[in-house]
Specification:
Layout (H helix, E strand, L loop, with lengths): L2 E5 L3 H11 L9 E3 L7 E6 L4 H16 L4 E11 L5 E10 L1 H17 L13 E10 L2 H7 L7 E3 L1 E8 L6 E9 L4 H5 L1
Antiparallel strand pairs: 1-3, 1-8, 2-6, 4-5, 4-7, 5-6, 8-9
Helix pairs in contact: 2-3
Length: about 190
């Protein structure tokens, strides 16, 4: 199964970002705009989780979440991958208590590896993908606009293990499990 561990912003944060993005989307641009249902902060991307490893992965992620306290974030600014001159991804960044977010990403990645699951990607760069391009695009003008965005703050209270299914032009996401922060596995079961 193709999965990822993520922080999913609450509805009011998503709606605020959508209110900023929607009037700025250009219909005939080379960018494919992500739907707001797909907006999340990926902590760990797991390209192929074997069925036999799933139970241990869930158990280890529950432990990771249980050891972490809630923290505050907000979406802010903009960036691109790999660079503005030849961008393939336009994103908004994260501000606030980013250190606990980075620790949560490292712990989630480590938990996945200990559960026997491959983790894809390199350095953690927290972001929400707004748009993608099939070929490299000059993104400087979009970055100037989206860099002005500052969203409302929210308390990160949980992480989610999400299954990603490809097909029909866009991936489809299904939440497999949610893990509250600061709640041990035994407390979750009760």
């Amino acid at each position: 199964m193709r999965m990822f561990v993520a922080v999913v912003p609450p509805l009011e944060v998503v709606e605020d970002l959508a209110g900023f993005v929607e009037p700025r989307q250009e219909r005939d641009s080379p960018l494919r705009w992500s739907s707001q249902e797909q907006w999340h902060l990926t902590l760990a991307f797991l390209p192929s989780v074997a069925d036999r490893d799933l139970d241990e992965l869930v158990e280890r992620l529950a432990e990771v979440a249980g050891r972490r306290e809630e923290f505050e974030l907000r979406l802010q600014g903009a960036g691109s991958f790999p660079n503005p001159a030849q961008g393939k991804v336009l994103w908004t960044g994260v501000a606030g208590d980013t250190e606990p977010l980075e620790r949560l990403s490292a712990s989630s990645r480590s938990a996945a590896v200990r559960a026997g699951t491959e983790v894809d990607g390199s350095k953690f760069r927290p972001h929400v993908t707004l748009a993608r391009a099939n070929r490299p695009v000059e993104l400087t003008r979009w970055l100037r606009v989206f860099d002005l965005y500052t969203g409302p703050s929210w308390q990160v209270e949980e992480i989610a293990l999400i299954q990603s299914q490809l097909g029909h032009g866009r991936p489809h996401y299904q939440v497999h499990e949610v893990f509250p922060l600061g709640v041990g596995p035994r407390e979750q079961a009760g």
